[in-house]
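Can't paste images in this forum, so I'm doing it all in text. The chain is below; anyone willing to post the predicted structure tokens underneath?
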Amino acid sequence: MNAEVLRSLIAQGDYQLKFVVDAPDDLKEIEVFLKEIGGVERSRVLLMPQGITRKELDERAGWLVEYCKQQNYRYCPRLHIELYGNKRGT
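Text version of the structure:
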């Protein structure tokens, strides 16, 4: 990770930062990452659960949605997997 490059890109205009989250411990790493970059608007951070089955997504969504609400992050579902399963081209 090059924090200087990321800060430069963020300063150039509209941006979003999306992180795929597998476990609650990932959230600590994301917080450290965002602190190192600095100046990131929380509403521009999207968190997406890791998973390739609806069951995996549902298991992670519960605690991840709550975390997003508490931290003012945006939750990003994997709608294509929910609708079509883990298939290429969807």
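Residues 3-84 form one domain. DSSP finds four helices and three strands in the chain.
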